[in-house]
């Protein structure tokens, strides 16, 4: 009887253990543009986030995104598209950002980056990040038309307006200089 | 012998009544309904899929389970294929449920379409984001996230990756139009109050000034600027009433005469 009770207790404890057992490292990888607009020949910032949601550290983590930004259509201004982290502890996260510069305008499909990591030095895992999807790379001129400071426009505007403002002011000055005495008399 | 036959007859009669009851057909068809419900519940998780869920924004939502209205809520779903066949992650559906009754939907969000193929021994991360509307501010709701996926044979699976009650808080960090307009209203009210009080005070002071003047007033004859009055008019006046003193004074002068 006692033995059977113990056996039952053991079964119950092992069931609980299954419910709360520690999970291996599980990395969620996140790729996200931080710039609102992608414009040709202007900086574009990308951020990669790695979140270890498992209960054990992930070893030898790499991010590889070289294939999604071919160098014939993108300049890499700052940062690396292939990064290596020795370890990401459980429950912590890493962010990595890269500044690139598109060389041409048009639609571009932002694909997933590849992340690899090891759990227990043995199990090799391959993870693909989310895909930001298709985005439009603006033409420089289009972007300037909407957002650049319009100094030349103002200059041209002032030149056009000059005959009616500056011209009339000069005429007024001339006529005023013609009657200096009359004005003095009135004021006294 | 007689007693036994009576018992037998009674038993027969009872059976007949019971049978009649059954024939009446009052027993409803419960059984098929139950089986249908069972069929619905058979769409479950696949043993070869491992899923994970993590809030990215706000970053403390994983622990405290709180959102702010009007600010983006972003989360990641990890999908791990532990089996030997491909999986296709079709979509994830997010919904707010009534906290005490999760079968009651408060809001269904646009489902995130992914259609991502996950090869064996591979993992994929999916992202989704939404805004909690202001009307949910200050109350708990049940957030439910289900992931729908298919295996290579076309079997459909559904995994529940998040099913918790979360608190939605009002965002009071930034400028809110309501308090801003309240402030402007109070400023306007105080300016109006100042104006009214100023008006009232000036009225009071003017009254006192008038009464004083009434006592002191003695006519304006001495201060008349005669340059402004035509000559003949002044002469006429002098002819008609040479005396500039008051009638009382005149009377007293006559008496004296």
UniProtKB/TrEMBL annotation, chain B:
TRAP proteins are part of a complex whose function is to bind calcium to the ER membrane and thereby regulate the retention of ER resident proteins. May be involved in the recycling of the translocation apparatus after completion of the translocation process or may function as a membrane-bound chaperone facilitating folding of translocated proteins. The chain crosses the membrane at residues 179-197. Its main location: endoplasmic reticulum. Heterotetramer of TRAP-alpha, TRAP-beta, TRAP-delta and TRAP-gamma. Interacts with palmitoylated calnexin (CALX), the interaction is required for efficient folding of glycosylated proteins. Residues 248-257 have a biased composition (Basic residues). It is a single-pass type I membrane protein. GO terms for cellular component: endoplasmic reticulum; endoplasmic reticulum membrane. Residues 1-19 form the signal peptide. This is Translocon-associated protein subunit alpha. Residues 236-257 are annotated as: Disordered. It is found in: Endoplasmic reticulum membrane. Keywords: Endoplasmic reticulum, Membrane, Signal, Transmembrane, Transmembrane helix. Belongs to the TRAP-alpha family.
């Amino acid at each position: 009887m006692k033995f059977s009770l113990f056996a039952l207790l053991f079964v119950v404890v092992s069931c609980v253990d299954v419910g709360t057992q520690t999970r291996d490292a599980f990395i969620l990888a996140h790729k996200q543009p931080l710039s609102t607009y992608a414009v040709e020949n202007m900086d574009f910032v990308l951020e990669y986030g790695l979140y270890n949601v498992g209960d054990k550290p992930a070893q030898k983590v790499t991010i590889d995104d070289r294939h999604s930004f071919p160098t014939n259509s993108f300049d890499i201004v700052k940062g690396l598209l292939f990064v290596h982290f020795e370890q990401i502890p459980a429950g912590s996260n890493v962010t990595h950002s890269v500044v690139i510069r598109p060389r041409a305008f048009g639609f571009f499909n932002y694909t997933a980056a590849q992340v690899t990591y090891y759990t227990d030095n043995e199990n090799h895992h391959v993870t693909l990040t989310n895909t930001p999807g298709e985005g439009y790379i603006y033409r420089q001129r289009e972007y300037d038309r909407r957002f650049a400071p319009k100094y030349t426009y103002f200059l041209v505007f002032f030149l056009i307006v000059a005959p009616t403002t500056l011209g009339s002011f000069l005429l007024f000055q001339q006529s005023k200089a013609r009657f200096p005495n009359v004005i003095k008399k009135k004021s006294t | 012998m007689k007693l036994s036959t009576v018992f037998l007859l009674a038993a027969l009669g009872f059976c007949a009544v019971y049978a009649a009851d059954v024939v009446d057909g009052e027993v409803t068809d419960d059984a098929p309904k139950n089986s249908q419900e069972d069929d619905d519940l058979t769409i479950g998780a696949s043993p070869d899929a491992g899923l994970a869920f993590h809030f990215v924004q706000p970053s403390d939502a994983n622990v405290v389970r709180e959102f702010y209205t009007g600010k983006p809520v972003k989360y990641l779903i990890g999908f791990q294929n532990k089996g030997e066949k491909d999986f296709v992650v079709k979509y994830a559906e997010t919904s707010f449920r009534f906290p005490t009754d999760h079968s009651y939907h408060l809001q269904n969000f646009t489902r995130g379409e992914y259609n991502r193929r996950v090869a064996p021994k591979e993992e994929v991360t999916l992202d989704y984001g939404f805004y909690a509307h202001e009307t949910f501010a200050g109350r708990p709701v049940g957030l439910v996230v289900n992931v729908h996926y298919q295996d290579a044979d076309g079997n459909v699976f559904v995994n529940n990756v998040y099913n918790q009650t979360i608190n939605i808080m009002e965002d009071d960090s930034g400028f809110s139009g309501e308090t801003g307009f309240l402030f402007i209203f109070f400023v306007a009210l105080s300016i109006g109050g100042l104006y009214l009080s100023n008006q009232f005070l000036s009225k009071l002071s003017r009254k006192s000034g008038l009464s004083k003047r009434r006592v002191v007033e003695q006519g304006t004859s001495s201060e008349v600027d005669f340059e402004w009055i035509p000559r003949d008019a002044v002469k006429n006046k002098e002819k008609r009433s040479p005396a500039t003193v008051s009638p009382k004074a005149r009377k007293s002068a006559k008496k004296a005469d």
